[in-house]
Amino acid sequence: MDKIVVNGPSRLSGNVSISGAKNSALPLICASLLSPGLNIIHNVPRLGDVRTILKLLAIMGAEVDLKWPTVEINTADIDNLHAPYELVKTMRAAILVLGPLVARYGRARVSLPGGCAIGARPVNLHLTALEAMGADIKIVNGYVEVKSSRLKGAVIKFPQVTVGGTENIMMAATLAEGTTVIENAAREPEIEDLAIFLNKMGARVHGAGTGVITIEGVNSLKEATHSVIPDRIETGTFMVAAAITGGDVLLENVEPLHVTDIINKMESCGVGIETSGTTIRVRGPEIIHPVDVITQPYPAFPTDMQAQFMVLGLKASGTSVITESIFENRYMHVPELMRMGADIVINGRTAMIHGGKPVSGATVMATDLRASASLLLAGLIAEGETEVLRVYHLDRGYERIVEKLNSLGANIRRVSSKFY
Ligand code: EPZ
Fold it and tell me: Which distant-in-sequence residues (6+ apart) come within 8 Å of 141 by Cβ?
């Protein structure tokens, strides 16, 4: 396993290009299962999770041609409707093949994803919704076994917002008989991106981006070409990196509209932000005011930025308050940050960060994707050397982050070893 060694503190300056969105590329790749033919997806980030989902589609019989950042997927000859545990356990979003497979083939056998570091992350809402559309679902030996004649349109009222559940049902409904209405739908930009791709295939999806999405079923879909939206969480991560290092960074190839709440919260902390077209300029202030955020479904503050904002709180002059309302165990980065001198108190879902204290380099352990990003950010402001272990977590969701940060003036190196 590799580790990353960060020598701090650094001050970041210069330009950085943001990659395509991981959490859009994954459902888009799964959606290609709906249309036999050659689907072409541009601006695909070169990430561990993306490789995993492409490997799964290849195992199913798809022809995958990697021309990074373009991926060509031909799903004309899918002959295996089985998503094995070995792959799904490493990349939970593989559950998103379920909707397309049931819609196109009327059956599927997909491993239950199991939990992960940040929570149990059940998929009960996905399955209940598919049953409401007429699917027959059994859980056998840790696998979801689904059979269905043609799915039927239904009104699906999600009791809580679920991004993956909304995506799975949107995809399943495109080939159903009749109309499906999803109420309390997720409103993330990735949902809109998926709807645009599906409609390019000939689907009839309306209302994506709002809380009510209507899908009129059609008989078949055709191949399409699409480009992935910019990654709003990588955008937010680099915005925090610029802010905490007192830097001056121009982020390129971004969509400012997708990070409105992140921008508002950072401006309230005193960070200088200028948006123009597909760029965002971030200047770190002398004084960072305390952070006060509650993670909520989009368009509110994203849970995937919680760990990164905690590092902003370390630099803030005063006490910051962060409440994680989406996942039940998304503070795994806190004990690691405390090893670096952070003064953080957790009380249930709320973290109090007493900022302005010295942060020193230490050896720390990554536990999940966004926790690993926060440890890397902490290394940028720490005195001395920070070693971040188990950086495979980072590789799942950030494309060339070490090279990108070093191009802005950071001092980071990746070290390979079999001992950690
Ligand atoms: C997506 O996960 C993202 N992943 C996550 O990003 C993100 O944190 C999450 O949405 C919330 O925004 C991808 O898009 C690949 P949910 P997803 O279904 O779809 C509960 C990252 O760092 N729930 O919106 O799995 C669930 O336990 C990752 O890039 C059920 O109870 O999230 C959670 O508490 C991490 N039953 C809440 O809902 C269900 O059937 C939100 O989950 C489904 C979800």
Answer: none
